[in-house]
Amino acid sequence: MDYRIREILVEEYSLLEDFLYEAIFVPEGMAAPPRSIIRQPELQVYLKDFGKKKGDAGLVAEAGEKMAGAVWVRIMNDYGHVDDMTPSFAISLYKEFRGLGIGTALMKEMLYLLKHQGYKQASLAVQKANYAVNMYKKVGFTILHENAEEYIMVTQL
């Protein structure tokens, strides 16, 4: 599949709401939560005033005329928070674009960008049952901490 990765435009920041909802892992056989879940404070940290804080960065993938996915980072006190010098990842793709290598390409491009901005590491949180764990490992993330449900992963840049 042909796609291109580029920096997210300011006028596209509102798309991050859709991608945040798409990023919510729903185990097989479970019902998806209502879209209003993204209004919870622990999820709003990924969106509120995006682009206004030092370290906010986002990329999108376009397949033809359609938006396929997004990856964005910021230094925030989220599920994947490690310290106040480490950007945390959020990434998702619309279902029809999953499993095609686009997510891996988005991750690699963002890691390259962060390295060239001078960051030493990046982090993320992921549910243990999420198939994306393997992709994160492939692009260099390792498990730093874990609890019953999720891994906190980091990668050195």
Would you count the extended β strands for me? 7
Total count of helical runs of at least 4 residues: 4
Strand-pairing-aware structural class: alpha+beta
Span from first to last CA?
Answer: 28 Å
Largest sheet: 4 strands, antiparallel
Low-confidence stretches: none
Largest beta sheet: what is the strand line-up?
1-2-3-4
Q: What overall form do the CA principal axes indicate?
A: globular
Task: Please provide the ordered H/E string of secondary-structure elements.
Answer: EHHEEEHEHEE
pLDDT averaged residue by residue: 96
Question: What is the gyration radius calculated from CA atoms?
Answer: 15 Å
- What fraction, in percent, of the residue positions are helical? 10-25%
Strand content: 25-35%
How would you sum up this structure in a few lines?
The protein is built from four helices and seven strands, in the order E-H-H-E-E-E-H-E-H-E-E. The chain has helices at 15-23, 41-44, 102-116, 132-138; strands at residues 4-7, 57-63, 66-74, 88-93, 121-127, 142-146, 150-156.
Question: What descriptors fit this protein?
Answer:
22% helix, alpha+beta, 4 helices, 4-stranded antiparallel beta sheet, 157 residues, globular, 3-stranded antiparallel beta sheet, 29% strand
Structure description:
This protein is of the alpha+beta class and 157 residues long. The protein is built from 4 helices and 7 strands; from the N terminus they run βααβββαβαββ. The strands form 2 sheets. Strands 1-2-3-4 form a 4-stranded antiparallel β-sheet, with helices on both faces. A 3-stranded antiparallel β-sheet has the order 5-7-6, with helices on one face. A hairpin with a 2-residue loop joins strand 2 (57-63) and strand 3.
